[in-house]
Amino acid sequence: MTPTVRRSQDGESYRASFLELFYDLVFVFAITQVSHYLLVDLTWAGAGEAAMILLAVWWSWQFTTWATNELDPDVVAVRLLMIALMLASLLMAIAIPEAFGDHGLAFAGAYVAIQVGRTAFLAFAAGERGSLERRRAENILVWFCTAGVFWIAGGLAEGDARIVLWLVALAIDYGGPLVTYWVPRVTGITMQSWTLGTEHFTERFGLFVIIALGETIVITGATTAELEVIDTTTVAAFSLAFLGTAALWWLYFSSIQGRSEEALARTTESVRVARDLYTYGHALLVAGIIVTAVGDELVIAHPRDELPTAELLPVVAGPALYLLAQAFFRFRITGQLSARRLSGVAALAVIWLVAGDLPALAVAALVVGVLVTICVADYIAARARGPNVRIEDVWNLE
What we know:
This protein is an all-alpha fold. The protein has two domains: 18-193, no CATH class; 198-397. It is built from twelve helices and no strands. The longest helix has 35 residues, at 232-266. The protein is globular, with a radius of gyration of 22 Å.
């Protein structure tokens, strides 16, 4: 079959389609499921399981984004593929609360169906026989099928055996891009085997950040609405949660988004940079947002209380993960450390050390103060260099 399902390679830029936005709706629900999973079990074991679930959800979404970066959403076959992936993703999201319980096989089966089904489409429906696109997809398919054995085996197993098998599966999934999906006795592929539409690619990942930030808005509003009494303290906790979310938005779309897109456009190794910044880097960024959302709910529910360690940790750790992800982005793009982001992480560590005797509202205020301070520092640094300096360029001013 000729690769008529692929986008034109005439160099034209393109944006996210309505089909992709429709597909993303499932992941609004999936992110909510992950945050609730963590909230229900605020232990190290629960956090580890939530992290494994998030890594699977993220891997299914971001690989579809790599695929739609090349596929034409106006072709009927591509639309049918996306709708099928959407259904499987919804089934996977439904199974999340019992992924390590009775619905483990449903979760694993849906995930494997997504990865294997999409990659088989790329190999046999979107690639001509003997073409680079087919050979690339076939190599990836081998890796997903191999990981799929461990996913399904884990779904059939119970307890620690499931955890071990799924950790092996995740190691295979996440290790594939690092070795460019090498398969023994098969002609290798290189980073140049992919075609990257920079504008579309960066927009899609930015939209997922919006989805994750939307979860903090939803959880903030839902938690407040469920309270029997909404007093001044509650309003203060609600307002701080919203300001914190706004600060996370500001820090991403005033630095990460623009600078990352420029880095992809300027480098001769755009696929390698995209792999590092988006395939891997954004996973930590999204994890930070989800943990922050959990912390927001705990503060709104108990603003006057001194939170126990397990409940206090998400309040501080979520923003810290987010800032560490941003520091990684700057280092990957410029080769330099981000003094402001790392100072923010250090400040959050100090807050963690002294927060045990403070009410949750006071801790939240200190955390939001750190985030807002970094936003203001970025803005001042940009303005100090003159009116023509964009705030996106503040990374070059540290």
